[in-house]
Amino acid sequence: MFRLRHRWLAVLGRSGAERQYHGLTPMCRGAAGVTDRDRLLVRQLEPNLVRPTVLASGLFWERHRKGGYQTEQRASTKDLIVNGLKELRTEFALFQQEWKEKLESDPLVVFRPGEIDVVFGFESQPDLDRWVVTTDRDHGEGYSQAALERSPAGFGLFHGTLESRVPKDGRIKRAGYANIKSLRVRGPVPLNRITNVGFSVGSRGGHEGSFRLEFDFIGVEFDPSHQEEFAYEMYRQPKYIVAT
Fold first, then answer.
1. Where is it localised (predicted)?
2. Radius of gyration in angstroms for the set of CA atoms belonging to the chain, rounded to a whole number
């Protein structure tokens, strides 16, 4: 009698949504047998009722893998083949140029002090095509404009206008940035962990307007007198706290 009375009190103490949840069959409660009706019922449960099946059903919000900037449309197999054949001609020309440079010149085995290995140049239009220009306007998050062109002196010129004015959508709080990023580093780069190079220009403190940044070339230099310093090594703490 005591067990029956205790069981009835436990059932009456539950909420309506929780009683409906426990009324589901064990098969429906499993992750493999969840139906649309059961998922709708689980969504209507009280917030303090959390079950493992809710996590398995994927009902919680998850952060986008691309940060919300993945705007590409999925292309069909036919479009992928056509676009791949178009890019194949460019890749073969680049492959031929790389082998020509490799056979004509000797590879650098020992870098001499003060010698600069040019990785990126800005002497022709194909050199500029290796860079991608991005602004907040491209993503609908502002009104900044930027472009990468050749200057009258024959160098690369990254110029544009930064605007901190935000769109009236109630979602964007800050705006005003422009950046350029290389597609991919080609050739033997000593720093094997670097795959691309980028530069960003942003407006801070309400300062906006036009900007101009000119590049001659981007290269790597061997400097024997240079001593590398990391941020962790420059981070100082009082004695007898860390690194004792």
1. Mitochondrion
2. 30
